[in-house]
């Protein structure tokens, strides 16, 4: 656990340095994000009893994504219906330009 915390601290320091004007490296930032994610697994590994809660939250995320997608479809259909009900006015200036 101590080694994982040390690796995580070093990753945060290098990530801050990579985002500074001194270095400005997106690749190093991404690499340190991966190192930080791996080190968090070394600090607190997932136990078997905690996996169920992760899976439950993952199921809720999927249901939230479905709800967001359906509400987006509903809103778009309402906007399209409103636009179709608007009266259409002919463009008189376009007709005069052709003459």
Give a description of the structure.
This protein is mostly helical. The protein folds into two domains: 45 residues; 33 residues. It is built from four helices and no strands. The longest helix has 38 residues.
Question: In a few lines, what is going on in this structure?
Answer:
By secondary structure, the protein is an all-alpha fold. The protein is 81% helix and 0% strand.
Please trace the helix and strand order, writing H or E for each element.
HHHH
Structural class: mainly alpha
Could you tell me the strand content as a percent range?
A: under 5%
Largest sheet: none
Q: In one word, what is the shape?
A: elongated
How many domains? The number is 2
Unreliable spans are: none
Q: Number of DSSP helices?
A: 4
- Oligomer class: single chain
Distance between the termini: 82 Å
**Rg to the nearest angstrom?**
27 Å
Look at the structure and give the mean pLDDT.
Answer: 77
List keywords for this structure.
99 residues, mainly alpha, 2 domains, 81% helix, elongated
How would the blueprint of this fold be written?
Layout (H helix, E strand, L loop, with lengths): L1 H17 L7 H18 L4 H38 L6 H7 L1
Helix pairs in contact: 1-2
């Amino acid at each position: 656990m101590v080694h994982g915390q040390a690796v995580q601290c070093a990753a945060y320091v290098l990530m801050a340095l990579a985002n500074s004007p001194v270095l400005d490296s997106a690749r190093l930032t991404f690499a340190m994000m991966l190192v930080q994610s791996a080190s968090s697994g070394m600090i607190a590994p997932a136990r078997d009893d905690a996996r169920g809660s992760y899976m439950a939250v993952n199921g809720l995320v999927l249901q939230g994504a479905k709800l967001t997608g359906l509400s987006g479809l509903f809103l778009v259909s309402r906007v399209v219906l409103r636009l179709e009900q608007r009266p259409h006015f002919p463009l008189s200036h376009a007709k005069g330009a052709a003459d």
